Amino acid sequence: MEKLKVISGFMFIISMAFIIYPMIFNTADWIVYAICIVFIPIAILSFGFLSMAKGKKEEEEDKRKEPFIGY
Fold first, then answer.
1. For residue 14, which of 54, 45, 52 has the smallest C-alpha distance?
2. CA-based nearest residue to 15, from 34, 38, 49, 32
3. Residue 16, helix vs strand vs coil
4. Is-contact 12 50, C-beta < 8 A?
5. Which of the four pLDDT bands, split at 50, 70 and 90, describes residue 15?
6. By the 8 A CB rule, do 9 and 46 touch?
7. String of b and e for 32-49 (b: at least 16 CB within 10 Å)?
8. How many whole angstroms separate alpha carbon 28 and alpha carbon 41?
9. Where are the domains of the chain?
10. pLDDT one-digit tens code per residue, 23-49
11. Residues contacting residue 5 through CB under 8 Å, at least 6 positions apart
12. Which among 46, 35, 41, 36 has a CA at the least distance from the CA of 12?
């Protein structure tokens, strides 16, 4: 889980930087479209991974007490 947090946090920071870049600098239209098509979904996905990786305290205690045995 710690590796997931680090990677998704890094992806989120990079994608937000690429999303903000065309707002600051005057770039060509096709570059703006390419950035939007690629980096907005990556930002949403990595934010979702960050929120999933946190977990609640109660869930962490339950995971320690009962190992996952499948369904």
1. 45
2. 38
3. helix
4. yes
5. very high
6. yes
7. eeebeeebeebbeebbeb
8. 21
9. 2-65
10. 899 889 898 899 889 999 999 999 888
11. 49, 50, 53
12. 46
Structure-token pair, residue 29: 């239209």
SS3 content of the chain, % helix, strand, coil (to 5): 80, 0, 20
- The two structure tokens encoding residue 66: 């009962």
Closest CA to 40 of 15, 23, 22, 21: 15
pLDDT tens figures, 54-70:
666 666 666 666 666 66
Q: Which amino acid is at 23?
A: M
Asked whether 35 and 22 are in contact (CB, 8 A), the reply is: yes
Q: How many residues does the chain have?
A: 71
